[in-house]
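Q: What residues go here?
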C-alpha cells in the first residue's frame, strides 16, 4: 500500500496558532558534551518533539522542519517568506547562483535554467557519454592489471570530467584535474575554517589561488572564441552574456563557473560513491537492476535510476537547507516569528519511518513501484524543492545513470576497507578512503 505523508495539524484557523514544541536546554548540553555531529542533535530534537520543533544553539531559537507539509510550505508555497540569507560555501563560490539572493539570483537563475532543460540537456548528452566511456576504459585497465583504485576518487574524476566537458567543450586533462583538486580541498575544509572571513580566506589562500588560475584561463579561452572538440560549452554562454549584461564581470563569471563545478561534480561524485558502498552491502540490488532489461532498454535505465534515487534518499546532497523567516507566519498551525532561523533537513525527512517503512534499509524498489513511497512532494527532496531547487537535477541524474549503465554490467569493486561513518559538511560524505580491486561482474 502507498505510504501516505503524515497528515500534520488540522487546517489553520486564524487566532488558534500554537507555540512550536521545544527541546529543552539539557538535550542540547548533552549533545555538546558528547561532541556529536549536528545531525545527531537534530535527530534527537525530531524524535522528541516531532516534525516541527524548536531548539537553541545560541540566544535565539532555531526551528527544525522535517514534516513534509511544512517543508513544502517553507520551500515551495511561501518561499518569499523564508529566504536564503547566505551560503556556507560563499568563500569558494562567491556570488554564484547558489549564494546569490534577490533580483541578482533571479537574473542568474533565469540565464542558467534554460541550459539544463530540453536543448541544453541534449547538448550535454554526448559529453556525459564520452566521460563515462573514458571511465569505463580506465576501469577495464584496472581490471586487467589488478591495480587497486579508490572508488571515491574515480567517481570524482568522472563527475569532474563530465562537468568540465559541459562547461568548456574540452575533456578533463591531467593538469587541470590536479589543480581542481583544490576545489575539493576547500569544500572539505569549510566546516572547520575560522568564523572571521579574512582568517578563513587566509587559511585556504593557496587553494583559492589555484582555483582562480584555472578559472581565469578557462574564461580567457572561451572569450577568445576557441571552442573545444565538443563545441562551445556553458562557459561560452556566460562569456556571451557579458557583452549585453554589465553585471557579468569576470568575477561573476568566475563565481558561476566555480559554482557549477562544485554543484556539478561534488554532489554526483559523493552520491555515486555511496551507491557503490551500498551495493557492496546489498549486492542483490545490482543484480535486480541488471535483470530488469537488456542493455540500452528503458527498463534497465529505470532500474538503474531507482538505484540512484534510493541512494539520494539515504544520502541527499542537500542534507540541510537553512532559511530565514522574513515575516510572521503560521506554519502548519504553529506560530513563526519574523527573524526566526529555519533548518529544513531532507536527511531526516527521508529517514522518517512514518513516511518510509524500514527507512535505514537500501531498497531501490521504492522507486520502481509508486505504491512503495510517499506521495507528498515534501517527503522526497534530495535536490531541494521550490524555486531554489537545484538547477542541475536532470544533469546529475543523467550522468549518474549513464556511468552506471557502462560500469555495472562489467565490474564489481571488491573493497579492501570501507568508511565506518559519514561526515556532514556541505554534502554527506563517506569519512575515509574506498580502496578496491575490480572483479568481473556476473550477470
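A:
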Amino acid at each position: 500500500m502507498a505510504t501516505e505523508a503524515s497528515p500534520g495539524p488540522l487546517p489553520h484557523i486564524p487566532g488558534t496558532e500554537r507555540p512550536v514544541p521545544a527541546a529543552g536546554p539539557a538535550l542540547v548540553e548533552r549533545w555538546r558534551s558528547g561532541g556529536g555531529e549536528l545531525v545527531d542533535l537534530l535527530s534527537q530534537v525530531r524524535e522528541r518533539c516531532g516534525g516541527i520543533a524548536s531548539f537553541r544553539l545560541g540566544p535565539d531559537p532555531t526551528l527544525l522542519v522535517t514534516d513534509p507539509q511544512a517543508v513544502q510550505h517553507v520551500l515551495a508555497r511561501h518561499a518569499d517568506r523564508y529566504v536564503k540569507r547566505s551560503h556556507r560555501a560563499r568563500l569558494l563560490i562567491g556570488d554564484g547562483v547558489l549564494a546569490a539572493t534577490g533580483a541578482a539570483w533571479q537574473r542568474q537563475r533565469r540565464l542558467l535554467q534554460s541550459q539544463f532543460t530540453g536543448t541544453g540537456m541534449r547538448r550535454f548528452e554526448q559529453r556525459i557519454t564520452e566521460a563515462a566511456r573514458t571511465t569505463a576504459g580506465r576501469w577495464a585497465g584496472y581490471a586487467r592489471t589488478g591495480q587497486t583504485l579508490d572508488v571515491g576518487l574515480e567517481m570524482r574524476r568522472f563527475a569532474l570530467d563530465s562537468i568540465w566537458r559541459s562547461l568548456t567543450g574540452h575533456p578533463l586533462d591531467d593538469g587541470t584535474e590536479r589543480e581542481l583538486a583544490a576545489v575539493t580541498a576547500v569544500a572539505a575544509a569549510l566546516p572547520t575554517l575560522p568564523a572571521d572571513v579574512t582568517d578563513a580566506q587566509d587559511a585556504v589562500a593557496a587553494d583559492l589561488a589555484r582555483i582562480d588560475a584555472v578559472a581565469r584561463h578557462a574564461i580567457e579561452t572561451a572569450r577568445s572564441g576557441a571552442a573545444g572538440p565538443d563545441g562551445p560549452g556553458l562557459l561560452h554562454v556566460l562569456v556571451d552574456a557579458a557583452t549585453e549584461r554589465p553585471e557579468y564581470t569576470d568575477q561573476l563569471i568566475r563565481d558561476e563557473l566555480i559554482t557549477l563545478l562544485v554543484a556539478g561534480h561534488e554532489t554526483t561524485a559523493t552520491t555515486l560513491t555511496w551507491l557503490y558502498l551500498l551495493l557492496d552491502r546489498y549486492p542483490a540490488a545490482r543484480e535486480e537492476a541488471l535483470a530488469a532489461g537488456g542493455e540500452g532498454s528503458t527498463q534497465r535505465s529505470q532500474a538503474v535510476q531507482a538505484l540512484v534515487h534510493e541512494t539520494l534518499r539515504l544520502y541527499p546532497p542537500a542534507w540541510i537547507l537553512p532559511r530565514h523567516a522574513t515575516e510572521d507566519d503560521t506554519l502548519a498551525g504553529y506560530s513563526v516569528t519574523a527573524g526566526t532561523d529555519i533548518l529544513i533537513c531532507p536527511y531526516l525527512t527521508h529517514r522518517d519511518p512514518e513516511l518510509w517503512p524500514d527507512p535505514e534499509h537500501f531498497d531501490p524498489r521504492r522507486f520502481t513501484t509508486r505504491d512503495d513511497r510517499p506521495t507528498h512532494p515534501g517527503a522526497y527532496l534530495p535536490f531541494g524543492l521550490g524555486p531554489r531547487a537545484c538547477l542541475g537535477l536532470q544533469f546529475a541524474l543523467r550522468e549518474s545513470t549513464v556511468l552506471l549503465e557502462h560500469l555495472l554490467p562489467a565490474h564489481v569493486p571488491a573493497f579492501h576497507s570501507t568508511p565506518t561513518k559519514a561526515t556532514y559538511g556541505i554534502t554527506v560524505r563517506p569519512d575515509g578512503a574506498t580502496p578496491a580491486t575490480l572483479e568481473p561482474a556476473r550477470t
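A: Context that may help when evaluating the design: Residues 1-12 have pLDDT under 50 and may be disordered. DSSP finds 16 helices and twelve strands in the chain.
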